Amino acid sequence: MENLSEANSLFPALYLIPVELGDTSQDRVLPAYNREVILSIRHFIVEEVRSARRFLKRVCRDIDIDSLTFYPMGKHAEGARFVEYLRPLESGEPMGVISEAGCPAVADPGADVVAIAQRRGFKVVPLVGPSSMILAVMASGLNGQSFAFNGYLPIDPSERVKRLKLLESRAVQEHQTQLFIETPFRNQKLFDTLCQTLRPQTRLCIAAGITTETEWIWTHTVAEWRRQSLPDLSKTPAIFLFGS
């Protein structure tokens, strides 16, 4: 197997390893240095083992997957389990954290692992890679000096409308860009709710399929959005942003 560096040449740190956001060539979105780091790590804390293994094979098709140890984070944070996962780091071995897509620990369960590592005094090293939130802000034309990611909005229709009005008020009063996401098959329904709820002059950006061949990023006022149809985003991850 090709190996660019020996495992003990890395600092004994927790390396946060970004993953592509979609069907995109790694050469476009990940620095070569990430590959060197990955090939020097034998212990990975991952969101999902199967997808992590596929990602590592894309990094290096000759990597010896069976020689690696994977620690699944699962859907619920379990502090005691994460402390146990970090044992190799205590022994001086570097470890990696791999999410499903994008940057670990940003809107991601990896944040719980990082919090424990910080409390226990371990070195944490974030590697460079694609973040859909940052890329969306960059391309939106909205305020990049002050912005907030709000995750998923409430599912209940009345609570969702209430939350949107609160965020819109914050966007106007604080000139703060508001970001949120939705499950792809609900993107159209969310878009309809935005058009019905937000003020006509509010600027709304939809950033879909970021870094992929189907990337689609447009910003219009809500009044302008009401006059056009949204492309089919039922299978495409998207970031929604709005601001004053």
Task: Give a verbal description of the structure.
The protein is α/β, with parallel strands linked by helices and 244 residues long. It folds into two domains: 7-126, 3-Layer(aba) Sandwich (Cobalt-precorrin-4 Transmethylase, domain 1); 132-243, Methyltransferase, Cobalt-precorrin-4 Transmethylase, Domain 2, CATH 3.30.950. It is 35% helix and 20% strand. The chain is elongated and about 55 Å long. The chain starts with 12 loop residues before the first strand and ends with a strand.
Provide mean pLDDT, rounded.
92
Instruction: Quote the distance from N terminus to C terminus.
Output: 54 Å
Strand order of the largest sheet: 3-2-4-1-5
Major beta-sheet overview: 5 strands, parallel
Proportion of residues in extended strands:
15-25%
What are the secondary-structure elements, in order, as H or E?
EHHEHEHHEHEHEHEHEEHE
Q: Give the C-level CATH assignment of the largest domain.
A: Alpha Beta
* CATH architecture type of the largest domain: 3-Layer(aba) Sandwich
Q: Approximately how much helix is present in the residues? A: 25-40%
